[in-house]
Design goal:
The chain is mainly beta and 178 residues long. The protein is built from one helix and ten strands; from the N terminus they run E-E-E-E-E-H-E-E-E-E-E.
Length: 178
């Protein structure tokens, strides 16, 4: 059975391992299940808040993830694993920030002008189907973000090569199946 799924709304959050901050946003996801075990999906989320505290280095972020879910349908429940590559667009600082004139610069200063970063989301979740066409989905995972170099990371280490940061990412969504 081919099943198309359109998810109308997502509440998305992430806890940054690099910046010790929690980010909350909203988004949309569209999925297609060519076979019952596999789903192909695309998701876009928008995080409107400033990131980085009082001296914010980003005014907003846009995230796009595109990949697959794998998991069996067990009655009205579908547990699944997911792997989705994509991007995280870090918007520029909402106002000028002070950056020390050293080389390499702190990562916050590198990102303050805006940058698109490569991301990969790996994790899993559960979908609960209603008796009709609606469903609820909860998922969590590790969003791996590739940061540019040279830079000084949040721990004070000098990174001469690009490096990967890990964020805990979670979503809660409700949708309609077609």
């Amino acid at each position: 059975m081919t099943e198309y799924v359109f998810l109308a709304f997502l509440l998305t959050g992430s806890v940054s391992g690099e910046f010790d901050a929690t980010d909350v946003g909203a988004g949309a996801r569209a999925s297609w299940h060519p076979v019952p075990l596999v789903g192909v999906e695309g998701e876009v989320s928008y995080y409107p808040g400033d990131l980085g505290g009082p001296a914010a280095f980003s005014g907003s972020r846009v995230e796009g993830l595109f990949g697959a879910t794998v998991g069996p349908r067990l009655g009205r429940v579908r547990p699944f694993a997911k792997l989705r590559p994509g991007f995280l667009r870090v918007g520029g600082a909402p106002r000028p920030i002070a950056c020390i004139a050293i080389f390499p610069p702190p990562l916050r200063c590198t990102l303050a002008g805006g940058r698109t970063l490569v991301a990969l989301d790996a994790g899993g979740g559960v979908e609960w189907l209603s008796s009709g066409r609606t469903f609820v989905r909860v998922d969590a995972g590790d969003r791996m973000v590739r940061y540019p170099a040279p830079a000084i990371d949040s721990g004070g280490a000098v990174r001469s090569d690009a490096f990967t940061g890990h964020d805990f990412r979670f979503t809660l969504g409700a949708g309609v199946r077609f």
